[in-house]
Amino acid sequence: MKIFFKTLSFIFFISILLLIFPLHSQARKISPGDNMSTEDRILNGLPVDLAKEQEREIMEIIDFDQKQMVKSEWITEALKTGVEKIDIRNATITGDLDFRIKDKFVDISKSHGKAGLLGLLREFKKDKAFLITSSIRIVNCRLQGNLKALKQKNDPVIFQKDVRFEGTTFEDEVSFDNAIFKGEVNFADTIFEKKGYFPSVKFSGNANFSKANFTGKAHFHLAKFLGENTSFMKSKFEGETNFIGSTFFKISKHEGETNSNEFIFTGQAYFSNAVFDGDAKFGQSKFNAVNFNGAKFNAVSRFVAAAIINKAEFKDTVFKDKADFNDAEFNAVERFIEAAIINKAEFKNTVFKAKADFDKAEFKGYTTFENANFHGVADFQVESFGNLAKYNNAVFNNEVYFNNVNFGGKADFERAIFGGEVDFDSAKFKDVAGFKHADFSGDADFESVNFKKLADFSYTRLNGEADFERSIFEENANFKRATLNNRTDFTKTEFQGQAIFRKAIFDNVAIFNGCTFLQNVDFKLAKYSELQISWSQLKDGQLENKAWKEDINSWQSVYQRLIKNFENIGDTDSADAAFYHYRKLNSKFLEHTLFGLTCGYGVRPFNALVVGLVLI
Question: Which residues contact 193 (CB under 8 A, 6 or more apart)?
Answer without folding.
Answer: 169, 170, 171, 172, 215, 216
